Each structure stands twice: as structure tokens, then as C-alpha cells.
Amino acid sequence: MEVSFRLDGKVALVTGAAYGIGFAMAEALAGAGAKIVFNCRSQENMDKAMAAYKEKGIEAYGYICDVTKEDEVKALVAKIEEDLGGVDILVNNAGIIKRIPMTEMSTDDFKQVVDIDLVGPFICAKAVIPGMLKKGHGKIINVCSMMSELGRETVSAYAAAKGGLKMLTKNICSEYGEFNIQCNGIGPGYIATPQTAPLRERQPDGSRHPFDQFIVAKTPAARWGEPEDLAGPVVFLASEASNFVNGHILYVDGGILAYIGKQP
Ligand code: NAP
Ligand code: GCO
User: Fold this and answer.
1) Among the four 19, 170, 174, 194, which has the fewest Cβ within 10 Å?
2) Active-site annotation holds for 176
3) Measured from the CB, is residue 97 less than 6 Å from ligand 2?
4) Atom of ligand 2 nearest to the CA of 188
5) Edge-to-edge strands of the sheet including 11-15?
6) Rounded to the nearest whole angstrom, what is the distance from the C-alpha of residue 1 to the centroid of ligand 2?
7) Distances (CA, A) of 178 to 10, 175, 182, 246
8) The whole model's pTM is what?
9) What does the DSSP 8-state code read for residue 191?
10) Tens digits of per-residue pLDDT, 15-72?
11) Is the CB of 121 within 6 Å of ligand 1?
């Protein structure tokens, strides 16, 4: 039996892949043979990202597009259909976090997080599914979180959105599985990216941030994840090797969810 993880001829749209986890996942998908399309919101980030892809030898197609704006997303998907023949793989990666105690958080802040982290993936999936139905196949990978399962102080909106994204994943699987569309989630643990930089900042005396120490102690692998740790999982879920895996959340967390924590 030969199992293929190759993605030659496939078009992958990775949202928010200017840097961080999205960039690493796009790089991995390109390494497996996929054509990469990505978006982000600012021209400045786009310019840096295009240079970074070029440096890696990847001919990526980058577009300015906000995942919360349905008209922009529809136009992007139409352009991909016209230029590249449609999206085979969608990775819903774009996301933000706001760390604010719940009773101090404005409703507008809460809504903005849910809008980007949950409504955005709905808008993007809704835009690509008709094309996938026509093609007779499709892979949708939603980037979930530890907060799809766990709560913690200050991240109420993020946890609500990522918990919702887990269930959107299962629902897309339920609704479109019979049409050969697989929708799965990847739940990264604590990964060193700009999003988590404030949690790793050195203290004025040069010592490690208490949250940084807390995460390393809470992770059986005893380290932060790197964006590259998501490479194998995303290629697996994008490839035919996972054709009967559907509605699953693959946690890539160095073991955090398995562990009760260090004994005193
Ligand atoms: P990051 O470093 O902050 O990168 C986020 C990316 O999303 C950027 O490219 C950003 O570019 C883009 N983006 C944000 N809002 C957008 C919007 N409305 N439309 C289009 N693009 C948008 O974050 P990351 O750590 O790589 O995280 C990527 C994903 O993984 C997020 O969904 C995050 O919640 C999730 N995650 C992260 C971790 C972690 O520990 N880092 C763990 C679990 C899950 P622009 O600002 O230019 O738009
Ligand atoms: C936080 C972090 C997390 C991670 C990640 C964990 O403040 O707790 O930013 O939410 O980014 O999503 O899986």
C-alpha cells in the first residue's frame, strides 16, 4: 500500500498567513506541492510576507482581504477560481486574541474577537464550499486552540470563539462529509509567534516571564511549540492520507491536554 501526503496540483488558501503559524503551515503545504494563496489586512505585512515567501523559494499569491468582510472574501475566492481553478484546501488560520478580564471587556472588543476568530472561518468556508462541491472534493482545516477545550483568566472572547470554531468544524463535517469534503481542526498548544510574544517577554531583571515558566511547566514536552511543529499535521489533514478523518480536532500541544500539571 502506498500512502500519499503529496498535494501536487492542489490550491491551498491559508488565511492570515503573512507570518506566524499561517506562514509555517503555508510553507509546509507548498513543500508538499500545493500552490499557496494567502491573505492579510495590511499592505505593509503583505510586502514583508511576499519577500519572506520569495526567500523560501515559494511563489505565493498574496491578497489584501479581511476575513470578516464577506464581499472581500467572495471576490478573493472568485479570483482564485478564475486564475488558479478554485480552492482545494482552505486553512482558516487568521485570528486575534484580546487578553482582558471579562468584566472589564467591552462588548465591542468581545464581538471583534468572535467576528475574526469564528465568523471569519464561517465566511471563508461558506465561500469555498460551492467550488469544492463542484470539484467533488475539499479539505477545510480550522485553526482551533487549547481554548477550544480549556478556559483561563482574561480570554473569554477568544475561548468562546475557539470553542465555537471546534463545533463549526464538526458541523461542516456533518453537513458536507457525504460530498467528500473533510473538515478538521488543528488545536495548537502554546506556540512562539507574535500573538504570544507578550507572554514570553523577559522581565526587567532579565528573568523569564512567569507565564512563560508556567507554560513550560504545564507542557510535558517542556517547551513552547514552534510554528514548524504544525507542518506535519497540516499536510496530513490536507492530503488524501486523511480522507476518512472528518470532524476531528488534532491537538498539537506537546501534551498539555493530557497533563494535570506538575505535582507540588
Ligand atoms: P499572529 O502571529 O498574530 O498572526 C495572525 C495572522 O492573522 C496575521 O497574519 C494577521 O495579519 C492575520 N489576521 C488577523 N486578523 C485578520 C483578518 N481579520 N483578516 C485577515 N487576516 C487577519 O497569530 P498566530 O499565533 O500565528 O496565530 C494564528 C492562528 O493560530 C490564530 O487563529 C490563533 O488564534 C491560532 N493559535 C495560536 C496559538 C499560539 O500559541 N500562537 C495557539 C493556538 C492557536 P494582519 O494583521 O496583517 O491581517
Ligand atoms: C493565551 C494564549 C493562547 C494561545 C493558544 C493556545 O493568552 O492563553 O494566547 O490562547 O494563543 O490559542 O492554544
Assistant:
1) 194
2) no
3) yes
4) 13
5) 61-64, 35-40, 11-15, 89-92, 138-143, 181-188, 249-252
6) 39
7) 21, 8, 9, 11
8) 0.98
9) B
10) 999 999 999 999 999 999 999 999 999 999 999 999 999 999 999 999 999 999 999 9
11) no
Residue type for position 43: Q
Tell me the best of 21, 99, 147 to mutate to test the pocket of ligand 2, counting ligand atoms within 8 Å of each CB and taking the most. 147
Question: Which of the following is catalytic: 53, 61, 63, 158?
Answer: 158
CA of 193 to the centre of ligand 1 (A): 9
* Residue having the nearest C-alpha atom to atom 3 of ligand 2: 190
Tell me the H-state helices in 56-180: 70-84, 107-114, 120-135, 156-176
Q: Express each pLDDT in 123-175 by its tens digit.
A: 999 999 999 999 999 999 999 999 999 999 999 999 999 999 999 999 999 99
Distance 255 CA to ligand 2 centre (A): 15
| C-alpha to C-alpha distances, 143 to 84, 92, 126, 189, nearest whole angstrom | 24, 6, 16, 11
The closest of 184, 163, 14 to 88, measured between CA atoms, is 14
Q: Domain residue spans in the chain?
A: 2-191+225-256
